[in-house]
Amino acid sequence: MSFDKFLTKIFGSSNQRYLKSIQPLVDKINSLEPSIQKLSDDELRARTPVFKEQVQRAVGDLRDKKDKEERKRRERAVLDEILPEAFAIVREASVRSTGMRHFDVQMIGGIVLHEGNIAEMRTGEGKTLVATLPSYLNALTGRGGVHVVTVNDYLASRDAEWMGQIHKFLGLEVGCIQNDMDDFERQTAYAADITYGTNNEFGFDYLRDNMKFDLATCVQRGHYFAIVDEVDSILIDEARTPLIISGPSDEATDKYRNADAIIPQLKKGEDIDGKKTGDYVVDEKAHTAVLTEEGVEKAERLLGVGNLYDPSNMELLHCVEQALKAHTLYRLDHQYVVQNGEVIIVDDFTGRLMKGRRWSDGLHQAVEAKEGVKIERENQTLATITLQNYFRLYQKLSGMTGTAETEASEFHSTYKLEVIVIPTHMPMVRKDNPDVIYRTLPEKWDAVVEEIQERYEQGQPVLVGTVSVENSELIARRLVRVNVPHNVLNAKHHEREAEIVAQAGRKGAITIATNMAGRGTDILLGGNPDFMAREFLKEEEIDPDEATEEQWKEAFARAKRIVESEHKEVVERGGLHILGTERHESRRIDNQLRGRSGRQGDPGSSRFFLSLEDDLMRIFAGDKVKALMQRLGMEKGVAIESKMVSKRIASAQKSVEGRNFETRKHLLEYDDVMNKQRETIYGLRRQLMEEPDQREYLVGETGVARDLLTDLTQQYLNPDLSPDDWDVENYKVQIHSILGETEDQVRGKGKADRRRSHAHLRADHHA
What we know:
Shape: globular
Number of strands: 22
CATH topology of the largest domain: Rossmann fold
Strand order of the largest sheet: 3-4-2-5-14-1-15
CATH class of the largest domain: Alpha Beta
CATH superfamily of the largest domain: P-loop containing nucleotide triphosphate hydrolases
Number of helices: 31
Radius of gyration: 30 Å
Strand content: 5-15%
CATH architecture of the largest domain: 3-Layer(aba) Sandwich
Oligomer: single chain
């Protein structure tokens, strides 16, 4: 036994010690419950202004910005003091407004979030309800900027309406940011005590606010406290892609078509001991595709250019390299789909379509050329920020997820967040079976279909997890052949996502899903009575939202009877079975899939079906696992279960996770440099809008803006050169990007201004 394990055995883990330290707070909250239950609705609601006054008394004498740290300290102290009663008040308000009572483990989760940590809570433990506790408590400061961050618009809208009942019951205002809102609607949503929305909406609103010229048009109030739901998805998975606001450039698109046309004529080779054969070599592990010397010469002949590495051809060379990547590393229905003549990225981790997002550096144009759709022009970046640096703006940050422990070190190093694993309300009884491994893909798919058929005939619901749209559709076609009814949920068929996931626990339900699998929607054994009641009303041609109270009660009662009957049958058949058809490159995504089953003490089971031809196995674990399989004597159509093989797979996943971490780390390092500039410029812009008396310092005769413009003018309109040699076009671009003026406005300044600038610079130069 190692010394660390010995200490853990004696003193308990740091997680156990932390949970033990906050138990007295939970006991205090519970002790207040009987007295709070006796309060009337009005008396309960009246506690909110009392709490707010208590907070203001603690910080009321602090007016100067210099007192920022002291304000933080006092606010923290008074909120900690209020916490037991505030949490007990929220629990009672929840019972009265939604019929849901917070369990003790949810109280623990609320404390963890309030203290600025990540709460790892299993699926079905009620994370959405947990967020109401710290959001209410921290909204009492009146600071604004209490933001509850979700992964999509649907969940933001649902949670704002559903959980908003609790906050409104207690006299707080709740807002929700949606993609199609205008500035006025956004201002109203941000003016609320608590605001729900997606990470993208919050991030882009921040960038847009810092491109505005009038404080009255800005929408965000500040960044006080953020609670990030599915924190691993947002702060880890999506952190590889920065948020970018861009505008169109004048770049021609013909070069992408020309480069694309030659790729099918190039021959793929191999790298054998450092010697490259063929015209190009692909390294899937490093995610690279490079031309060999022969390939460069062939490309030059096909394109009719002398030397691709000549400075005049560097742009064309770049297009060829991107076209090669598009053809060899990016696959239709894996990394992207084509809909209505548009290439849309599929998120690696969530399986969702990322509409409006484009790959940068000409890659998106290369994929468009490959697919023969309209090539959109490359955009120029107007404003950008990484999610890491956006969420670092918050004074306090916290998050919730079912799977964070595997990324605990990254949460700590990047965001200074600790991961606290919250115990489940009911014991976990799901049975996780060992992986079964086949030699080839066809053998694996045969076994998968056979397993689904068996479970379907027994009446057990099955959730089939796939890593791509292509694989989900392949399984669907095979199930059609054997007459097994099923639902498909992937990036192409996502309209009924909430409904499909909610009913995936019904008797004999077969649901095939990419890893989008409805995060935020629980799979209830026997089905969801709310969704079922809505379907019954639709069958009778009644709009569920316009049904009378009597019609709804009748439909719901009928649905509840069916659900209760099916729930019992599904439990007897072993609960929801999770069938994974491939290991994802992140262990966390596999754990999320498993976590869809076994919620709140329900029975359930899981198993992964793998083959040596799966991408992860082939690229990262192939040779070693193949050799191991041969030693174990694999036969055609026969699967093996081996702990050694499972360890190899886990090792491969760790390797990919490490590579992805390095990508995020380097992206952050680059953005950290820009972040200092961004903070300075955004700070000066804000100062100008907030304090007009500072205009002279910033834009007066000796101001910093004049210094900046003088430097730019010196660079592009050099007074030592003839005006004919000035780089006027790039000067206009720079002025436009700084001042937000159009080319016409810049041109409208007239030649007189340019001559004055020239005369001023010449005078400075000869002084």
